[in-house]
Design a protein that fits this description.
The chain has about 800 residues and is α+β, with helices and mostly antiparallel strands. It contains 26 helices and 23 strands. Strands 15, 16, 17, 18, 19, 20, 21, 22 and 23 form a nine-stranded mixed β-sheet that branches. A six-stranded antiparallel β-sheet has the order 11-10-9-14-13-12. The longest helix has 30 residues, at about 470-495.
Length: about 800
């Protein structure tokens, strides 16, 4: 007799003392020995069985020595034969067991074959076996049997058994038959009261209480069990596919689904891929490949349908959204005349394939699921029907992923185009929730509320590229000069080959424009010159190209200098604009990173803009956050942070000079405003702005201050190499002079100037501190200080 033990059950502790007994089967045989069954076919054999069993009383009384199973193998086999009919032994997956231990001692032939195919190293074990849970399960069995209190703790058990012949693992659900057992208490078994039962029902996770009420071996189990296994591999695979599709889309999820489908079809080398197509332009004859892990496509980003697929596939997949199976790719190639799709199948070694289109409702996307085999007819119209149970799952996942992708696009748009700063996002959610609740309450006057924050303190700063207008105009002048001189050269060469007065007249006009450019650019000059070239010069150049090959080369050399998109010489301007872009990006990225540090001081609103340089607004106050208590100390900390960061941005720009095509310098400005103000989100402009007539003065100062002059002079306030701090109240100057003195002690700032500013339109009485920046050199270069370090040093 083959005996197989559950590998971790040898030391399993239970409230039951297990005794194997065949008394209930014996009683059945005994029943048919009675004379009333004398004519029954079982009568004679029952008498013989009873006589044989009586010779071995422990088979009835019970035994716990499992070695007796082998000793009495022959009679036990006879006793159990009625439960294991030979006619079903090749069909049923069944075994006689010792309950709770999963020790099996009689198997059907099919079960034996499954275990033999599992390989020598296979451990016959239950999935997710938990000894404590098994102990409690035995306790609930006692409650039902002895105390008539049925507690439902029935959980399915599963075996995962590999097949070395196919390479797949099959999954089996276990069903137990407990008709052949009895349970009786020992003298040591505590009496269970109603209060005990209530206590147990409230303490499933407390194994100590269960052990107290049902001590180990306090009850006697006599009998055996019948274990039936049912192949649920398909159900398990479908469930696994569903669970994997619910998870986050990543490489591991895709690979898991591939393995699921290989198990599902029983094809170990099944190829699985997918592509997401945008079919919005299907009527125009092409589709766009948005995402792809295809087994068919390579680098295609757009497919012309008729050049790639046959009409049948186009209609079925993209129009009717119906799945297709090609069971013989070679035969399909002949029928299609060798189209690109069939050639791809041949190149990939695919002989049969199933294509499943899944259309999403949220947009014009179509997911095409691909399953392919290297053997003809292995995938066919018959086994394609198995997919009916899982296609709805893929459709649901495609819909979800499509919605998530749209959410990602929406989040990207919000982050880069219409961003709502995280510090104030809570208020927008609150307003949106209030509006949705009003709609649910059928409030006819439901309106989205205004978003405003009151009593906030502003901080404004900028690092402006100095002389940007002059540098840009100089670059334009240089490019136009080169282009006009090149045009003159073409016309002069044309005169040598063809004496036409029009060439001289055009040269005169080009030279006249060149003189005007060298005198100085005026508004509209560039547009006028380019219009003249397109209208009067280029038609002549087309003629000149036809005179001879030499002139064709001259005209082509002129055209090669022009930018492909703008059709102008775009060299110096490109260098300048690239330099501005690099500097802006560097400064913007730097302050964005520093903002993460600043938010730790106290949550505040921050917005940053790129112009010819970088400028930013910050607002701090109690109304910005509901989770923190505001104190003026946080404002002072943030002001110190701003000054330190401005110094560091000066160094960032200074160190970048050698890497730019144009030598660009920045001039830094900080505007101090000590009175709180209100900001409101403007729905039409989708941005925050100051609110109230008095607060408008602050905005006016921001827009005009960088153009201000020092009072009584023509000198601009903002100059490279110095940080200008504009204020209106002396107490602000006292505060910032402390910060400056601290940074002077770090050898970061130098000489200080106290200045009065000229009156601006609508604004007077402004003053400024202008302080020299001591730039870091490679010798004394150091990392920027954290705000914690700054505050610690100031204490």
């Amino acid at each position: 007799m083959t005996i197989r033990n559950f590998h971790s059950s040898s030391d399993l502790e239970l409230p039951l003392h297990i005794n194997i007994s065949f008394k209930k089967v014996y009683d059945l045989f005994k029943k048919y020995t009675d004379n009333q069954y004398k004519g029954h076919p079982y009568h004679v054999s029952a008498i013989q069985m009873v006589e044989e069993i009586d010779k071995i009383p422990e088979l009835i009384e019970g035994f716990s020595d499992f070695s007796l199973l082998e000793k009495h193998e022959e009679i036990i086999d006879l006793v159990l034969d009625p439960l294991f009919p030979e006619i079903l032994t090749q069909n049923e997956i069944k075994a006689a067991t010792v309950p709770f231990s999963f020790t099996c001692f009689k198997f059907t032939e099919r079960f034996e074959t499954i275990l033999d195919n599992a390989g020598k190293d296979y451990l016959f074990e239950v999935r997710n076996f938990e000894p404590d849970a098994m102990y409690i399960y035995a306790c609930t069995l006692i409650l039902g049997t002895i105390y008539g209190r049925n507690v439902d703790l029935k959980r399915p058990f599963y075996f995962d058994i590999p097949d070395v012949n196919t390479g797949f693992t099959r999954h089996y659900r276990v069903a137990f038959n407990g008709d052949f057992m009895d349970i009786t208490p020992t003298e040591n078994a505590p009496k269970i009261t109603e209060d005990d039962i209530k206590l147990l029902l409230d303490n499933f996770d407390n194994i100590d209480i269960w052990r107290e009420k049902f001590p180990p071996n306090s009850y006697i189990f006599k009998g055996f069990g019948i274990m039936n296994l049912f192949d649920v591999t398909t159900d398990e695979t479908i469930n696994s596919i569903q669970n994997n599709l619910i998870g986050r889309e990543d490489e591991s999820m895709t690979e898991k689904i591939r393995n699921n489908l290989r198990d599902f079809f029983g094809i170990g080398d099944l190829k699985v891929g997918y592509s997401v197509y945008d079919i919005a332009h299907l009527d125009e004859g092409h589709v766009k490949v948005k995402r792809s892990e295809s087994i068919l496509l390579t680098d295609e980003r757009q497919i012309t349908c008729e050049k790639y697929f046959c009409n049948h596939i186009i209609n079925k997949i993209f129009v009717e959204n119906e799945s297709i199976v090609i069971s013989d790719a070679d035969h399909y190639k002949k029928l299609s005349g060798g189209n690109n799709f069939s050639l791809n199948l041949e190149e990939k070694g695919i002989k049969s394939i199933i294509l499943i289109p899944i259309k999403t409702a949220t947009n014009q996307d179509l997911l095409l699921l691909e399953m392919a085999s290297p053997r003809a007819y292995e995938l066919n119209s018959v086994n394609k029907q198995k997919l009916k149970d899982i296609i709805p799952m893929f459709k649901a996942a495609a819909e979800r992923n499509s919605e998530e992708y749209l959410n990602i696009l929406e989040a990207t748009i919000q982050e880069f185009y219409t961003s709502i700063h995280p510090s104030v996002k809570w208020r927008f959610y609150e307003a949106a929730e209030n509006y949705q609740n009003a709609l649910l309450d059928k409030d006819e006057d439901a309106k989205i509320e205004k978003i405003a924050f009151h009593d906030v303190y502003p901080l404004f700063g900028q690092s402006d590229i100095k002389g940007s207008s002059i540098a840009r105009n100089t670059a334009i002048k240089q490019d136009l000069t080169k282009q006009l001189n090149s045009a003159i050269h073409v016309l002069r060469e044309a005169c040598k080959k063809e004496k036409l007065p029009i060439y001289d007249e055009l040269m005169y006009r080009v030279e006249d424009y060149l003189i005007e450019v060298n005198k100085g650019m005026k508004a509209g000059d560039e547009v006028a010159i380019l219009d003249f070239l397109k209208r009067d010069i280029y038609p002549v150049f087309n003629h000149v190209k036809e005179i001879n090959d030499e002139l064709t080369q001259v005209v082509n050399e002129y055209l090669d200098q022009l930018d492909d998109n703008l059709q102008v010489v775009y060299e110096k301007r490109k260098d300048y604009e690239n330099s501005v872009t690099k500097l802006n990006d560097k400064l913007a990225k730097f302050i964005d990173n520093k903002q993460e540090e600043a938010q730790k001081i106290f949550p505040h609103y921050f917005e940053r803009y790129k112009t010819d340089g970088v400028e930013y607004n910050m607002y701090i106050g109690q109304s910005i956050t509901k989770q923190h208590k505001y104190d003026s100390l946080y404002l002072y900390n943030l002001r110190l942070w701003q000054l330190q960061t401005t110094y560091e941005m000066e160094n960032v720009a200074y160190k970048l000079r050698d890497k730019l095509d144009h030598d660009l310098r920045v001039a830094s400005l900080i505007l101090v405003h000590s009175n709180p103000l209100s900001i409101e989100f403007r729905m039409d402009e989708k941005q925050f702005d100051v609110d109230g007539a008095y607060n408008i003065r602050y905005e006016i100062i921001k827009k005009r201050i960088d153009k201000a002059h020092i009072k009584g002079t023509t000198e601009r306030l903002t100059v490279p190499g110095k940080i200008a701090i504009v204020y209106s109240q002396d107490k602000d100057a006292d505060e910032y002079l402390k910060y400056i003195k601290f940074l002077q002690s770090k050898n970061q700032l130098g000489k200080v100037e106290l200045l009065e500013l000229e009156d601006l339109q609508g604004v007077s009485g402004l003053k400024a501190i202008r302080v020299e920046v001591i730039y870091e050199t490679k010798e004394d270069e150091k990392s920027s200080m954290s705000i914690d370090e700054l505050i610690k040093d100031m204490k």
